[in-house]
């Protein structure tokens, strides 16, 4: 016993109360008009470490009768007098009854002699905010109260609101039911909500004097009650079966129930410390929910905009799918943009290596070139004096021989491969054009006598000079092929660029839609983030206040 008392940290109630006021302030700054008031009430109650035991349940379950019995005084009006529409709070203290009105007025009267007034005020839900009775000599001390709440199932909204608005101040809920109405769905709904909110809930099945044993034995009845709540996954902190009309009923657990209340009152500080924290947590949640409700319109607007944007095979509501699709489309766009440049570079590289690898000069070429160059030297003569015609014929013959030599090598080692390469460039990009192919195949690089003559340089006809001459001619031929090839490449690039433009126009349109979707998702996410931030900020205030 001592050990457990040592372990329980004493609560600094005034510090906690201050924290609730800070929370209220933060929420009020957010424009919340309901939750801050509840937190201020909670702060007031916390400062006094006040215990509230709320009696809830269907009207006529016997709540008021039970409270009167517990107090040993007939304070509360009971049926058939109309049930109270307001929460009536009773605590220990000097004998007094106060009625708090909506306008902030307080009317006091004597609870012993002026009960009719209380009855009158207690039924008037419109103007009365709450009724508070203090009474000495009962099981209640100044810091412990019993709350008599209106029936929770009431169709009258005022009753419902009165009960709802008192719940954040209830540390323990006594849920009373009429023996015959235990299986009513409202019982399960209400107690489940309470348990989900972390409230201790004790069930009281009252009026067990209505039980007729030969129909069903009492044990079976109790089992059926417990089973019904268990089926709803509701685990009450205790169940009591009572009769107020027949105190001597053999199954009456009124005494045990009263004992339980005494225990709760004795453990007040610990109970209140725990309960106000969970009430504050709940109010934070309530605030976040109200923030969510205030975002609902904007959220719906964003979502319907998303629904109006359509792209094939994409769920526009799926934020992840949208951002993945956008990233993919942008990457494709980049690839598309660089594809033309890449294709050009590749084609130029292929042409370059084809030309580099084409061998145009052989031993026979050098021989023919040496012979040709010799015939071009000044003073070259064939036959006797004045045999100019013969010399000219010999020159022509040697020129033809060298031309034939180069033409053969070009035809075999260059021209064929060149045409094959150029021809396949369009096909490689899936473009079909017979006319282009025809032009490629019609390409003719003429090697003429003037061409050969153009590369002759002055100087001795050494072996090295002959080789250089051959290389010059070969390079000049290759240069002609390169020019022709670059013209074809330019044409292919032009075709690719215009196709790319068409494709990118479609792609750009898609990217535009995806960006719009992504921005709507961003706005939705920022709403959620602001709700989360609010929750975290309030929770941080709460942690710091511990
Ligand atoms: N038979 C029987 N009647 C009861 C019992 N407890 C209360 N009542 C009666 O049930 C009616 C409703 O009780 P009341 O306390 O006003 O219910 P409330 O609306 O929950 O406050 C009154 O007429 C009570 O006298 C009980 O244990 N057995
Ligand atoms: Mg009542």
Describe what you observe in this structure.
- This protein has 546 residues and is of the alpha/beta class.
- It folds into two domains: 49-266, Rossmann fold; 319-528, no CATH class.
- The chain is 62% helix and 9% strand.
- It is built from 16 helices and nine strands.
- A nine-stranded mixed sheet has the order 4-3-5-2-6-1-7-8-9, with helices on both faces.
- α2 (13-29) runs antiparallel to α3 (35-47) and α2 runs parallel beside α10 (268-308).
- It is rod-shaped.
- The two termini are 25 Å apart.
- The relative contact order is 0.09.
- Magnesium ion binds at residues 63-64, 83-84, 148.
- Its main location: membrane.
- Residues 53-206 form the Dynamin N-terminal domain.
- This is Dynamin family protein.
- It is found in: Membrane.
- One of its GO terms (cellular component) is membrane.
List keywords for this structure.
546 residues, alpha/beta, Rossmann fold, 2 domains, 9-stranded mixed sheet, 9% strand, rod-shaped, binds guanosine-5'-diphosphate, binds magnesium ion, Dynamin_N, GTP-binding, Dynamin family protein, GTP binding, GTPase activity
Secondary structure layout plus pairing:
Elements: H1 2-7, H2 13-29, H3 35-47, E1 51-57, H4 63-71, E2 88-91, E3 96-101, E4 106-109, H5 115-123, E5 128-134, E6 144-148, H6 157-167, E7 172-178, H7 185-196, E8 201-206, H8 218-231, E9 238-241, H9 254-266, H10 268-308, H11 319-357, H12 363-376, H13 388-428, H14 434-442, H15 449-454, H16 463-544
Parallel strand pairs: 1-6, 1-7, 2-5, 7-8, 8-9
Antiparallel strand pairs: 2-6, 3-4, 3-5
Helix pairs in contact: 2-3, 2-10, 2-16, 3-10, 10-16, 11-13, 11-16, 12-13, 12-16, 13-16
Bound molecules: guanosine-5'-diphosphate and magnesium ion.
Guanosine-5'-diphosphate is lined by residues 59-65, 78-79, 83, 206-207, 209, 243-245.
Main location: membrane
Coiled coil: 292-346
Domain Dynamin N-terminal: 53-206
